[in-house]
Design a protein that fits this description.
Blueprint: H1 2-23, H2 30-36, H3 46-66, H4 75-108, H5 136-144, H6 146-157, H7 163-192, H8 198-201, H9 205-229
Helix pairs in contact: 1-3, 1-5, 1-6, 3-4, 4-6, 4-9, 7-9
Length: about 230
């Protein structure tokens, strides 16, 4: 009973935190309107794509928590369990990439990760648009809390993935996700004339390919490391 209560608590906090972060985007006023008016809207950002995957992990986990114990072994229960494990394989590596790229850049080179606030007109021709910073509570809900919450859920409440899964399927899934996002970001940029993240806009195509490949490889490494730490 205590274990079930802990599951419900973690999944409820996780779901509420991530929903709060996404809903908080509407508080950004004109900047939110400007982003939504672009092709792809907020879903240009890997952060938001990963956030929705994380939400699905938490909501699916909550559904499983609320199932009666007698339902274990049923088709619906087993299907939801397998679906959640697939979501974990997607959301956890993406959250690792988002946190590992976002926080170092936001602390050292914020202009490489923060979108310029084009809703504010420069006061003179020599002025340069400043990066738009979102409120801290929204920032933490989007970039700070999802990763640790997903790690806790995996280490505390999920079974360790098999060696075969880690060797064969995890890298293949990461490659599919990385390639899909790269193609999506590139396509959105052809419509908007710039990328959602300035460091991509500043980079040539070969450099962007290296960035996509490096992030994909890093996600596999982190996921394998977490699975290795799993007891």
């Amino acid at each position: 009973m205590a274990n079930r209560a802990a599951r419900i608590l973690l999944h409820s906090i996780g779901a509420a935190t991530m929903v709060y972060g996404y809903k908080g985007l509407s508080r950004l006023g004109d900047f939110d309107t400007w982003i939504r008016g672009q092709y792809g809207g907020h879903f240009q950002f890997l952060t938001i794509d990963g956030l929705f995957a994380g939400m699905l992990v938490m909501f699916t986990g909550l559904l499983l928590d609320l199932f009666p114990r007698t339902s274990k072994g049923s088709f619906i229960f087993e299907s939801l369990t397998n679906f959640k494990r697939l979501l974990v394989m997607i959301a956890l590596p993406v959250a690792a990439v988002v946190a590992s790229v976002y926080w170092p850049l936001i602390l050292v080179l914020p202009k490489l990760i923060l979108t310029e606030d084009f809703t504010v007109e420069p006061t003179s021709k020599g002025d340069v648009a400043t990066p738009f910073r979102i409120p801290l509570d929204i920032d933490l809900s989007l970039h700070g809390f999802p990763g640790p919450l997903l790690v806790l859920d995996f280490l505390l409440f999920e079974k360790k993935f098999s060696q075969e899964t880690m060797q064969k399927y995890a890298p293949l899934l990461a490659l599919c996700i990385g390639t899909t996002y790269a193609m999506w970001a590139e396509y959105c940029a052809t419509k908007n004339n710039y990328f959602p993240y300035p460091f991509l806009t500043f980079s040539s195509l070969p450099i962007r390919v290296v960035i996509y490949a490096t992030c994909t490889t890093f996600s596999v490494f982190v996921f394998r490391a977490l699975n290795w730490l799993h007891q």
